[in-house]
Structure formats: C-alpha cells, structure tokens
C-alpha cells in the first residue's frame, strides 16, 4: 500500500490511521517510507492508539511514535468532542496535536434499499482523517511543503490537551480556523512577492 501511495504522481496527503507494536525492524521500515513520502512533498498523518494504557507499549505504537522526529509527519490524537481539551484515550503522549473526534458519523458500504447506512464511532483514525481534510484545504491555497504544513498546523493549536485524570500533554488541540487563516495569509503574501 505504501508503494502504491508513493508511486501516484498526484498524492499530496497520506492518512495512515492505524498503528502497531514497536520493534526495531518495523521502526526502520516506517522511518524509510515516511522519509520517502516527505521527500516527495507528501504530508503524512498518523494516529495515536485508542488505548488508555498510559506508560505502556501503546504509547510507542508505530508509526505515530516516529512523527516528532520526522518533519512533515504528524500524529493526531482524538479529543472529546464536548470537551476538546480532554483526550479521548490517554495513551497519546507522542501525538503532535489533538482533534475532537468522539461523535463521528461516517458512511458504511451498506445500502438498505432507500439510502446509505451511517454509523457513529470515535477515535484517532477519525481525528487523523479530519486533520487530513484541513491539510487538503490548506494545500488548495498554495502547494505548501510538508514542513510548512506542519508549522502551520502546530502554530494553530490552542492550550494544552490533558488526560481524563488531568495530566497535561505537551501539545494543544488544532484550531482549523486559525490554520486556514494562516495558510490564506501566507499564500496571499507569496503572490504579492
């Protein structure tokens, strides 16, 4: 799947909304494909674990645990929709930022004869998908490099996300309006110069 995504000429964003256990061999594989993606100008969004197993193997799932060391790769944590500063799952220390994603409605592949069936779910996969939508919108203003997208998104976070127990993380929750406004300003400035 990585090869296919990397070989399409018009791939601009990859959402890898799943994770797995950390081991050296897998870490080297992910590091290689993530670096290749960013070198091709592709922004990569990964997701955290949906586990509450704090300080466990869930904290270092791949590829999320590599995101902070690879510019242009971001790891997204789900926060509670009604309380956006609170994590939906506590094993999210290595995320880049949080996105509300506990009341997500999505289409299924089922059709009941009259309409498509929708389901409700929650989690970091939905948060990563929502963040990808913001990235695509940002890229519609200007073909920003992955590192520029990362800077715009990280500069557009608010506060500090915390666990349900109150432990504060080192990142905030993404403010899509701020990210879009910053991208528009930078794209406009680039056209003037």
UniProtKB/TrEMBL annotation:
<dbReference type="Pfam" id="PF00082">
    <property type="entry name" value="Peptidase_S8"/>
</dbReference>
<dbReference type="InterPro" id="IPR036852">
    <property type="entry name" value="Peptidase_S8/S53_dom_sf"/>
</dbReference>
<protein>
    <recommendedName>
        <fullName>subtilisin</fullName>
        <ecNumber>3.4.21.62</ecNumber>
    </recommendedName>
</protein>
<dbReference type="GO" id="GO:0006508">
    <property type="term" value="P:proteolysis"/>
</dbReference>
<dbReference type="InterPro" id="IPR000209">
    <property type="entry name" value="Peptidase_S8/S53_dom"/>
</dbReference>
<dbReference type="GO" id="GO:0004252">
    <property type="term" value="F:serine-type endopeptidase activity"/>
</dbReference>
<feature type="domain" description="Peptidase S8/S53">
    <location>
        <begin position="13"/>
        <end position="164"/>
    </location>
</feature>
């Amino acid at each position: 799947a990585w090869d296919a995504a990397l070989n399409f000429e018009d791939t601009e964003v990859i959402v890898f909304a799943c994770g797995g256990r950390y081991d050296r061999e897998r870490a080297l594989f992910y590091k290689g494909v993530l670096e290749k993606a960013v070198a091709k100008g592709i922004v990569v969004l990964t997701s955290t674990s949906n586990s509450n197993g704090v300080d466990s193997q869930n904290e270092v799932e791949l590829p999320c645990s590599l995101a902070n060391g690879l510019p242009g790769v971001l790891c997204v944590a789900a926060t509670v929709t009604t309380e956006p500063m609170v994590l939906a799952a506590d094993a999210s220390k290595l995320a880049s930022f949080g996105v509300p994603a506990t009341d997500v409605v999505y289409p299924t592949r089922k059709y009941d004869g009259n309409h498509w069936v929708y389901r409700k779910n929650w989690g970091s996969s939905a948060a990563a998908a929502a963040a990808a939508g913001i990235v695509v919108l940002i890229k519609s203003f200007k073909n920003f490099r992955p590192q520029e997208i990362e800077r715009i998104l990280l500069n557009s976070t608010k506060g500090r996300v915390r666990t349900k127990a109150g432990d504060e993380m080192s990142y905030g929750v993404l403010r899509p309006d701020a990210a879009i406004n910053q991208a528009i300003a930078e794209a406009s400035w680039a056209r003037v110069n």
